[in-house]
Each structure stands twice: as C-alpha cells, then as structure tokens.
Write a structure and sequence with these properties.
The complex is a heterodimer. Chain A is mostly beta strands. Chain A has no helices and nine strands. Chain A is globular, with a radius of gyration of 13 Å. The N and C termini of chain A lie far apart (36 Å). By secondary structure, chain B is mostly beta strands. In chain B, 0% of the residues lie in helices and 48% in strands. Chain B is built from no helices and eleven strands. In chain B, strands 2, 4, 5, 6, 9, 10 and 11 form a seven-stranded mixed β-sheet that branches. A four-stranded antiparallel β-sheet of chain B has the order 1-3-8-7, with no helix packed on it. In chain B, β7 and β8 form a beta hairpin. Classes of the chains: A mainly beta, B mainly beta. At the A-B interface, β3, β7 and β8 of A face β5 of B.
C-alpha cells in the first residue's frame, strides 16, 4: 500500500491565496483528485485529473502537479472555504486518500 | 438527478458482521463507465477508501482490509452492498458510498451519499 501526505493545517486570511500539498509516489504517473469536506457534510469533489474542475466548483479552486506532489490552490479565499481538504489517488485499482488538511480562514 | 443513499444498522456488536447497502438513482449500475466505491471516516479522523466495484463486476479492495471485505451489486435493484466481517471498536465510523468514474489511472468520486454512522459496541 502507499500513502499520501498532507500538512495537517493551514491558515489564510480572507481574500488571500493558500495552497495545500499532497505528496506520494503514485502521483508520479497517476492523477490526483481533491475533495472539500465541511463539518457534518459529505465530501465534495473540487478537482479531478490533477487540474480539472467540475462545472459547479468556483474558479478560485485550481490544481497542479509536479513530480510526485499535487497542489490545491484557493485564490481569493472566502470564509465559506473553511473546511477539511483531502487528496485522493488511484493505483493498481486501489484507492487512497491523503491525511487531510484543515483550512482555517482567519 | 443522481442520488446515493446508504443504509444499515447503527449499532453492531464486536465480532459481528456488518452489511451496508447503497441504493442509487439517476443512473444504472450497468453503465460501463461507472462504479461504486465505499469509504469510511472514523469520528474526527481522515477518509479511508475501502472498496470499489466496476460495472463489469470487477472488484478491488483496500489491501489492509481485504480479508474482511466483500463488495457486490444488484443491478436490477440499483444497489451496491458492502460486507465487513469481524468488527471491532476501531471500525466505528461514518460509512459512505460514492459513484466513481474509475480507470487504471484515476478514480474521481463526484457523487456521494450522506453517509451512515456505524457504532461498534457491546
């Protein structure tokens, strides 16, 4: 099995940009997805195939990848973006989620 | 409109077997591009992927839980079922099912159920 490592928490001021990293060997040749989860709610897919954004997700969410590290960036962060964020990858027909990052908007 | 809904017991005793059902609507489990994953989340902890079933009935499992899990589907009733044996307190979690567009390099899950809480306690 493999692991995807994320920072436990990040803090950002409203209107600023923040980035969350996700590191793991499978990301070298597999796509990353990102999910947002607010307290008491189910996760919501915000990025898939490293950089693609579902139509209902605001443009301030973007994804990128370099080598074995994927990054989720939130530009112009809003209070409503305060949530837990998880990366996810798929390797050898097995899924794995990252350790999760709590984004606090202060 | 795609919906996913999990159902099953709230309270299970240690060593017992858990059976969870995911009832879907708005799409068919026979659609060749789609499958269903099960994911769980212990209280206050991270998401954990458990298993996936493809439209062709191919199955995949978490390596750490493979010996305890069985995933299946009933296409005619639009249901996917997860069975987990030998439950212990560490299996207390909210269990989610999600629709996935999975292939050999990616498995995005754009639709999730509301989750069902399972408590393992005597």
């Amino acid at each position: 099995s493999y692991e995807l490592t994320q920072p436990p928490s990040v803090s950002v001021s409203p209107g600023q940009t923040t980035s969350i990293t996700c590191s793991g060997d499978p990301l070298g040749d597999k796509y990353a997805c990102w999910y947002q989860q607010k307290p008491g709610q189910s996760p919501v897919l915000v990025i898939y195939q490293d950089t693609r954004r579902p139509s209902e997700i605001p443009e301030r969410f973007s994804g990128s990848k370099s080598g074995t590290t994927a990054t989720l960036t939130i530009s112009g962060t809003q209070a409503m973006d305060e949530a837990d964020y998880y990366c996810q990858a798929w390797d050898s027909n097995t899924g794995v989620f990252g350790t999760g990052t709590k984004v606090s908007v202060l | 409109q795609v919906t996913m809904k999990e159902s099953g017991p709230v309270l299970v005793k240690p060593t017992e077997t858990l059976t969870l059902t995911c009832t879907v609507s708005g799409f068919s489990l026979s659609n060749p591009k789609l499958g269903v994953s099960w994911i769980r989340q212990p209280p206050g902890k991270a998401l954990e992927w458990l298993a996936h079933i493809f439209s062709n009935d191919e199955k995949s499992y978490s390596s750490s839980l493979k010996s305890r899990l069985t995933i299946s589907k009933d296409t005619s009733n639009s249901q996917a079922v997860l069975t987990m044996t030998k439950l212990g307190p560490v299996d207390t979690a909210t269990y989610y099912c999600a629709r996935g567009y999975c292939n050999n390099i990616s498995c995005p899950l754009p639709h999730w159920g509301q989750g069902t809480l399972v408590i393992v306690s005597s």
